[in-house]
Design brief:
The chain is mostly helical. It is 87% helix and 0% strand.
Length: 104
């Protein structure tokens, strides 16, 4: 095996195996939830034959964003904390607007 391939293999093992713990698992679950919002939006748009933003998009955004925010806090990543924190406000506000429309 080439030197760089061996180093890459060691790096992969460290990143994905050695440091695996409950927080990494939470991060993967959070990322999966966050990704589901795009899947839900895509499927709804395909069904409607036009671009659609279903309410489930915002619920997946809020759930995935909350878990990613918790993960970012635990990892003490200021860029990730700021990005997810702002997103949470936007997701919550969109759900509030939708709820207001439905009441009217």
């Amino acid at each position: 095996m080439n030197g760089w391939m061996a180093e890459f293999g060691v790096w992969l093992h460290h990143v994905f195996v050695e440091q695996f713990d409950g927080w990494i698992l939470l991060g993967f679950v959070a990322q999966a939830m966050f990704t589901m919002r795009f899947v839900v939006q895509w499927l709804a748009s395909e069904k409607a034959k036009r671009s659609v933003m279903p309410v489930a998009f915002w619920f997946f955004s809020l759930a995935g964003g909350t878990l990613l925010f918790i993960y970012a806090i635990q990892r003490q990543d200021p860029v990730f904390i700021a990005g997810q924190g702002l997103g949470l406000l936007i997701y919550a506000r969109n759900l509030m607007l939708i709820r207001g429309e439905r009441k009217a």
